[in-house]
Amino acid sequence: MIELKSERDREKMRRAGRVVAEVLEILKTSVHPGMQTRELDVIAEREIRARGGTPVFKGYQGYPASVCVSVNQQVVHGIPGSLTLKAQDLVSLDLGATVEGFVGDAALSLFLEGAPSARAAELLEVTEAALWAGIKAAKVGAHLGDVSAAVQNTIESHKFSVVRDFVGHGVGRAMHEEPQVPNYGTAGRGILLRAGLAIAIEPMVNLGGFEVEVLDDEWTVVTRDGSLSCHFEHTIFLDENGPEVLTQLR
Ligand code: MF3
Ligand code: CO
C-alpha cells in the first residue's frame, strides 16, 4: 500500500529534509584526504542530533553507523571505519534522519581534490543529471516508469551503467516505503503519481558494468569489475505544483 502524505506530514518532512541537507553540507565541507571515514560518522551523528533529529540508518537492520561512506568502486552502504581517504577518491555520502516522526534521505558524491580522469568527472556529472532528470519527470499524472526511464536514459546515453540490485523508494514515517523506484524502466508503465506521494530517487551509476556484489561485512556494495561508482539521492514530495525537493538547502 502506498501511503499518501497530508500537508501536516509534508511540513514535518520538510524539517527532516532540511536537517539532512544541512548535515550533508557540513560533511561535504569536512571531508578531506588523510581523514578516516569514521570521522565523518562522528560528525554526522553529532550534527543530526544537534538539530533534534535521530540518525535513521543507525541500527537499521543492524547497520552500525549514521552515514554511509562509499569510496571509489564502492557503490553504496560503505560502513565508515579505518579507511583513510586520499586525493582523487570518489566519495559518496548517504545520510538519513528522522525528525518529528518523518524521514529525510539524501546522498551526494564528490571527488577529493579533483577527478582522476575526464571520464570519471563525467560519471559524477551524469549521475547528478540523472537524478535531476528523474525529479523533473516526477509529476502528478505521470507514471513511475517515466521517472525510471528518465534516469536510465540519462545514464545510458552517456554509456554508463545503471545498478539494478538497489533502487529508490517511497519515504515517510519509515525510510523504506512503497513504491520501489528503480533507476531503469519504461515510460508510461508503473503506478500513476499522485499528490502527496513522497519518494527518494537515488541513481547508482557504474563507469563499467552494472553488476555489483556485497562484501563480507554484509553491507558494502562494490562493482564486480572494480570500476568507479557514483550515487546521488534526494527525497521529493509531489503535488500539482510539481516536485518539491525536500533535501535541498533553500
Ligand atoms: N539511502 C539508503 C537507502 O535508501 C541508505 C540506507 S543505509 C542503511 O537504502 F544502512 F540504513 F540501510
Ligand atoms: Co534511500
SSE layout:
Blueprint: H1 7-30, H2 37-50, E1 54-55, E2 67-71, E3 74-76, E4 90-99, E5 102-111, H3 118-137, H4 144-156, E6 161-162, E7 168-170, E8 177-181, E9 198-201, E10 204-206, E11 212-214, E12 221-223, E13 229-231, E14 234-239, E15 242-245
Antiparallel strand pairs: 1-4, 2-4, 3-12, 4-5, 6-10, 7-8, 7-9, 9-14, 10-13, 11-12, 14-15
Cobalt (II) ion (CO) is lined by residues 105, 169, 200, 202, 233.
Provide a quick synopsis of the model:
With 250 residues, the chain is of the alpha+beta class.
Quickly list its features.
binds cobalt (II) ion; 5-stranded antiparallel β-sheet; 250 residues; 4-stranded antiparallel β-sheet; alpha+beta; binds 2-amino-4-trifluoromethylsulfanyl-butyric acid; Creatine Amidinohydrolase; 15 strands
